[in-house]
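Question (not urgent): is this output format expected?
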Amino acid sequence: ERTQNIIYTLGEFLRKGLIPSIPVYIDSPLAISATEIFKRNPDCYDQETKDLLLGGKHPLELPQITNTRTTEESRAINEDARPGIIISASGMCDSGRIQHHLKHHLWRKDSHILFIGFQAEGTIGRKIVDGARTIRLFGEEIAIHAHIHTLGGFSAHADQKGLLDWLSHFKNPGLKVFVNHGEEKVALELADLIRQKFRLDASAPRWREKRILLGPETIEAQEEEPGEVVQEVKAMMRPGETIPALFGKLENNYRRLRRKLKRGKWKEWESQDPRLLKQLEEINRKVEELEEEL
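Got this back:
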């Protein structure tokens, strides 16, 4: 619900005259669909939001908003020279539409990049937040001259205090708690706090550590050899259905298609075969949607 909270807040700013009336682009098909679900369920709104509706102001329907579902609509945003706000996926900048916007705006001194979520170590988002001077995107080194900001208030995750409060409502003294989200130092600290505060069996699993959560036997944590993990995964899937195998087929099919187009008349097909263009656009759209989900 992070996008919806942002839309609500921007609406408040616009109604109070705190920001000018500028275009707001929601550039995430998933966020757009989620917003539509919120709109169809006003009975779930809190009283403050219901009061806005009674006053004729829908908190999620701003005249400044443009929803961009297609790849073409997304790319067209960067052709608009007017000032504007782009709300885009994905949050850590390792994939998705945000990379195109970063390519167009990181080098601009008058652009502002606002991170409203956690940036994990090793991600492009973390490198930008930590002050990198350049970032490599689409095979190019992009200089960073934009203003970089972080804002934690919109995080979709509870903080340490919130998690401890949530856990306090459990009354099972035999409860086992696994802290498997966040960086190592923070995860270990939270596990230690849980042990001290609630006297529960809490731990932050190590890399390749394995626990069986449901079953007749209690199995102690153990570290596995990489080969054992791979064999276990393969045993769960039928031959030819592994993700690497499917990616291999996808790459081979792409290369064959590209060779055929090169041997054929690429320019002639481009101008005379709208059916082929439509099929390629659909394939490209599906790949980009999958990339955003991952």
